Protein: FAD/NAD P-binding domain-containing protein
Amino acid sequence: MSAPNTEAYLAPLDASKSSITIGIVGGGIGGVVTAIALGRIGYTIHLFEQAPKFAEIGAGIALGPNSLQALERLSSDLSTPILANYESVATIEEHNGLWFRFTKWDTQEEITEVRTTGKNSSVHRARFLESLLPLLPKTVTTHFASRVNKVENLPGNKVLIHTTPPHQPHPDYPSETTESGRTFEVDVCIGCDGVKSAVRGSIGLSLTYGYDVTTRVDAVVRYTGTYAYRGLLPLDKAIERTGERHILTFPIEQGTILNLVAFVSDRTAPEDQRVWNSGPWVVPVTKDQMKADFAGWDKDVLDYLDLIEKPERWALHELVPLDKWTVGRVTLLGDSAHASLPHNGAGAGQATEDAYILASLLRLPGCTAENIDKFLLAYEKFRLPRAAKQQVWALRTGEVYEMESPLGNDWDKIGENLRERYRWIWEHDLEADLKEAVEWLKAEGVVH
Ligand SMILES: Cc1cc2nc3c(=O)[nH]c(=O)nc-3n(C[C@H](O)[C@H](O)[C@H](O)COP(=O)(O)OP(=O)(O)OC[C@H]3O[C@@H](n4cnc5c(N)ncnc54)[C@H](O)[C@@H]3O)c2cc1C
Structure:
């Protein structure tokens, strides 16, 4: 499917919102979907991205029915083809909803198939982001090479965003920034700046994460005990393996490329005492390094690892669920609010749900420069519990895959568990959340 002509979708829908300025920090999937939605509504948007251009790191992601539903609602409510553009680059599984097959590594015996009701999909992250960029409305001004170091709630309903260049080297972006320090005054700030969120740190929801990410663990970000090798290879066969290690594969790029993630876990330390002290979170690795972790595995598996082009090792960190995301006129969205292990295949999907609920609330006619902070609270109130459950659930899902859960290696129970395990994520009624949020705003006397 080719992407539709997008010129028609770039104009604001509601000119009365243009006097309200919103700063969005972070141009990943969460930030860009949010910028498209809020810009299309008519808000004046400043989007700050620390990298010199939009770019996704990492390989493929899967989006389940709940994420597709969020993209569909955003598209139809705002008359902008987010879902169509996504589908033009995604690999869609719409016939039998196969999410994955869980098989034993040695005998290839199938434990279970896990199926969604409704269609699901997978995509190369970079292609997804590229498909979204033509939809950024004219109301959105993007500031690249702009690292936000601090945001401040000011007296008088304003927020100050500081985009000072870093004075210490940053391991992920060593050559960043071309822009000298500047400040921007906005009405609202949304931190979409990922797991290491500077916005979250500066509103006191965690200690500000230092640049020395190699060893520091702040109050809420912690190493999960799992690292993962990620890479792409030109194949279309899925494999799984167990025992503190497992491998997940799924096709992207219309079935021509296989996305492979090989997980290695060490759960000897208690959950709150796991520390990553082996350097930067994301590093390139050699095939030999990767294969050493899977020494003794059967030949098929090692052959797959051999085919990966440019493998990387990711130290997987998570946020301990926060009890709030909003302080004054600053809120969080996506991984900055609820980063988790990827075992439910749901992190980016949760960001799309965030964007849908937040945009739908800020679109209400009763939302003004004076009361917009109440709408941020409604968003938090009706998104946080579900996103927090997904964070905890993801950690436990990894234990099931690697036979470290109370189910042990009882294959029947594991199969039964996996078949039902993700239903609450996929079959959620987002519309009901939105209605409840609107009812709450009515009860608070904010909308009528
Ligand atoms: C191995 C792995 C597999 C995964 N698989 C899946 C999957 O199958 N399905 C799924 O739904 N999810 C998956 N996820 C999770 C998913 O990748 C994340 O949840 C999602 O990308 C989060 O998007 P985000 O926009 O919130 O944050 P990010 O993608 O982290 O984007 C943050 C952006 O903010 C920018 N930024 C950061 N700090 C600043 C700053 N101070 N100033 C300015 N800019 C800043 C960054 O450069 C970046 O562009 C997976 C994750 C991993 C690690």
